[in-house]
Amino acid sequence: MKIALNAAPQRAESPSRLIDARIRELGDWRGQTLSRIRTLIKQADPEVVEEVKWRKPSNPAGVPVWSHDGIICTGETYKNHVRLTFARGASLKDPKRLFNASLDGNATRAIVIHEGDEIDEGAFKALVRSAVALNTSG
Q1: CA–CA distances in Å: residue 126 to residues 81, 96, 98
Q2: Sheet architecture: strand order including 81-86
């Protein structure tokens, strides 16, 4: 049996670079929306950790995930919308009513954004900070 000694080891891409690539790959309003949401999350929590989860053959790019002592939210892109799912959203106060999907669940809540939709950036950052506070409270 021969073993190739000159084969370069596979270096895993960083999650941040994978998210950058996904945004570029989309190349439309969904990529712009995901990029803006990402910026708002980082502004709300400078210690946020970016991850990419659930990579599989049917979704090789995976799902961008933002965490701080647990998942804050995921950023999924679909043909006609961007969906931000907050892992513990049902436990968060949402006075500006940003959550508009998954409202009947016991744990998650989601914000679905369609092309042309505006998001209240201040309220969104407050929601992210609340999610972080919930995650870090034990």
Answers
A1: 22, 10, 11
A2: 49-53, 63-67, 71-77, 81-86, 109-114
* Cβ-Cβ contacts under 8 Å for 40 (sequence gap 6 or more): 121, 124, 125, 128
Per-residue pLDDT of the chain (138 residues; tens, 9 = 90+): 444 444 444 456 788 888 888 989 998 999 999 999 999 999 999 999 999 988 888 878 889 999 999 999 999 999 999 999 999 999 999 999 999 999 998 999 999 999 999 999 999 999 999 999 999 997
Q: Which residue has the tokens 């969104």?
A: 124
Domains present along the chain, CATH in parentheses: 15-136 (3.90.1150.200)
Closest CA to 64 of 30, 102, 104: 30
